[in-house]
Automatic annotation (TrEMBL):
Domain of life: Eukaryota
SMART domains associated with the record: DUF1771, SMR
InterPro entries per the UniProt record, alphabetical: DUF1771, Smr_dom, Smr_dom_sf, Smr_domain_protein
Organism of derivation: Crucibulum laeve
Residues passing through the membrane, by range: none
Residue intervals of the Smr domain: 80-156
Record-linked Pfam families: DUF1771, Smr
Name by which UniProt lists this protein: Smr domain-containing protein
Database matches in Gene3D superfamilies: 3.30.1370.110
Amino acid sequence: NQLNQSNEHYTSLRARANEEGDQMAKCFDESHQAYSSGDGARAKELSNKGKEHQRKMEQLNKQASDWIFVGTYDTPLNAIDLHGLYVKEAIARTDQALQEAKARGDSQVNLIVGKGLHSRGGMAKIKPAIEELMQKHQLIAELDPNNSGVLIVQMNSGNRGRGVGSDEISRRIERDDESCIIM
């Protein structure tokens, strides 16, 4: 799946999403300035324009996420490749995969999280987030002894009924004042 991250279609979708995100931020900033200067009508117009850019950005990122994730179907049934996904996307895909694995009665799931070599600064982002997700679901996830970019999740190791949803985990990760605790 790492090769797919260089695919022109995929990179184009992510680049277009980033452009929409830049336009969104610009509109929201200008909206705030217009509101501060007393031009409520212009502020509302810019805010609506920013929301449209946000919708387009989310749509493009979803297309990119769907495209790269579909490309992982050549992996074994009990494996999920998270390369090329943003952290929030990886959490949602993992959450879905865990639910499907539990419904199938799988005893383990292999999560290909990567080592972070292609992340900015060479620091893994997906792996710590997925490890936190496993804690929230009270599941045991151990590094594959043959590949430190793979987490092996034992599906029968916890009680999934007491977990926290993927949106909450994403919110916690995105907060600057709260760090991930990995045990």
